[in-house]
Amino acid sequence: MPSKKLDFKTGQYVVYPTQGVGKLVRVEEQTVAGQKIKMLVIDFERNHMTLRVPVERAEISGLRPLVSIRKMDEAIASAKGKADAKRMIWSRRAAQYEENINSGDPMKLAEVVRDLQRRTTTDTMNFSARQLYLRALERMAQEFAVLHKIDLDTASDKIEDILGIPKEIDLNAVDVDDEDEEIDEEE
């Protein structure tokens, strides 16, 4: 079965499954083991990382262009659904969520966001669930931000608004302890 050739252009935003959204900055030729290989050079500004992917391995690695706004809206709509009640131990569920996050697939990211989001102020979330939720939300927000030409924080807020997550639940907020304030004042 012939595979379709992915055609990327310099300046284009792309999604690398395990890293999220990056910008293709150039295509360069490198000599590796005596062979010349064309490499896609992708800059992940947020992670302060540059990735080189051989053109021949781009599809196998899961590198893809951004989805359409319509597809992103479908993913967000699926995240509004009812959480999937999975009857398995947390470590297995967490491993499945991790796999979904690293897939780079917006629908799988939406599944993680849907299953882990807190819908009321009384819902509780353990630390690892919170971290998985925030990573999945950030990956969705990265693509959403580029598609809508907004910054990442605004994209995260907008997605959570669409999902109807109450404002009282701010998973990104950092509580300042009274002790921390006293230490700052002494310095």
Give the domain tally.
2
- Assigned CATH architecture of the largest domain: Up-down Bundle
- Tally the helices: 7
Question: What is the CA–CA distance across the termini?
Answer: 67 Å
The ordered H/E elements are EEEEHEHHHHHH
In brief:
This protein is an alpha+beta fold.
Describe the structure.
With 187 residues, the chain is of the alpha+beta class. It folds into two domains: 13-65, Thrombin, subunit H; 69-163, Methane Monooxygenase Hydroxylase, Chain G, domain 1. The protein contains seven helices and five strands, in the order ββββαβαααααα. A five-stranded antiparallel sheet has the order 4-3-2-1-5. Residues 169-187 have low confidence and may be disordered.
Topology of this protein?
Blueprint: E1 13-16, E2 20-32, E3 35-44, E4 49-54, H1 58-61, E5 64-65, H2 69-79, H3 90-103, H4 106-116, H5 127-148, H6 152-163, H7 178-186
Helix pairs in contact: 2-4, 3-4, 3-5, 4-5, 5-6
